[in-house]
Design brief:
It is built from 4 helices and 10 strands; from the N terminus they run E-H-E-H-E-E-E-E-E-H-E-E-H-E. By secondary structure, it is an alpha+beta fold. The chain has a 6-stranded mixed beta sheet with strand order 2-6-5-1-4-3. A 4-stranded antiparallel beta sheet has the order 8-9-7-10. A hairpin with a 5-residue loop joins strand 3 and strand 4. The C terminus is likely disordered.
Length: about 170
């Protein structure tokens, strides 16, 4: 079993990228500091992160190290989410406001937002005129204004959502 005990606060080097184990984890798993998981190649992994601040999220691209030089790169795994859209930017902003008022983690983009599926919230959003579609997608919301600086990328020079606006609303 691969034991990972430390979150590194830096992007991986090219050598580390080549040799690191890959971990595809859902958002709920990425907020845990102790977790048994399987890597994408089937290796058993124990994540035992001591000294990590409560509420820390292992972001897409996070680098973990551990026993004997073990390295792993975290990927936000596709999971069931609700994709929220609206007929106008103002209508989407209104829906976002109501989610923020409830401190709902949300991943924002210019033309949509993603939230974890919740029938009560989805009903509220539809009542506000938003469209809600169930999709499978990586979910990587921000931790909010007080978590140390926003949505971080550690996985290379560019990723598909670098051009999007991402944040957790209501924090």
């Amino acid at each position: 079993m691969l034991r990972l005990t430390r979150l590194l606060d830096r992007p991986p080097t090219a050598d580390e990228l080549a040799r690191a184990t890959r971990l595809a984890l859902t958002y709920d798993d990425r907020v845990k500091t102790r977790l048994a998981a399987m890597s994408t190649d089937g290796t058993a992994v124990a994540i035992l992160l001591d000294g990590v601040k409560r509420g820390t999220v292992l972001r897409d691209g996070a680098l973990l190290d551990g026993d004997g030089g073990a390295l792993a790169i975290v990927a936000a795994a596709p999971q069931p989410v609700a994709r929220v859209t609206a007929d106008s930017p103002l209508a989407l902003l209104r829906a976002t406001y109501h989610l923020a008022n409830r401190h709902v983690p949300a991943q924002l983009a210019v033309d949509h937002l993603l939230i974890e599926r919740d029938p009560v919230l989805e009903s509220m959003l539809r009542g506000l005129g938003a469209r809600v579609e169930h999709v499978e997608a990586p979910f990587d919301p921000e931790g909010g204004a007080y978590d140390g600086g926003g949505h971080h990328h550690h996985h290379g020079a560019h990723c598909d959502h670098d051009d999007e606006v991402s944040a957790t609303v209501g924090e």
